[in-house]
Amino acid sequence: MSAQSQAVPAAATTTGSAAPAAPDRATGATPSGGAHPGSLAHNYHPLPVTVATGEGAWVTDVDGRRYLDLLAGYSALNFGHRHPALIDAATEQLGRVTLTSRAFDHDLLHPFADRLTQLVGPLVQDGGPGAVPMMVPMNTGAEAVETAIKIARKWGYEVKGVPAGRASIVVGHGNFHGRTTTIVSFSDDPDARDGYDPFTPGFRLVPYGDAQAVADAIDETTVAVLMEPVQGESGVVVPPDDYWPALRRVCDERGVLLVADEIQSGLGRTGTTLACELWDVKPDLVTLGKALGGGVVPVSAVVGSSDVLGVLTPGTHGSTFGGNPLACAVGLAVVGLLETGEHQARARDLGTHLHARLARLVDEGLLTGVRGVGLWAGIDLDPARGTGRDLCEALLARGVLAKDTHGSTIRLAPPLVIDRPDLDLGMAALRDALTQLAADR
Ligand SMILES: *Cc1c(COP(=O)(O)O)cnc(C)c1O
Question: Where do the record's region annotations for Disordered lie (predicted)?
Answer without folding.
Answer: 1-41
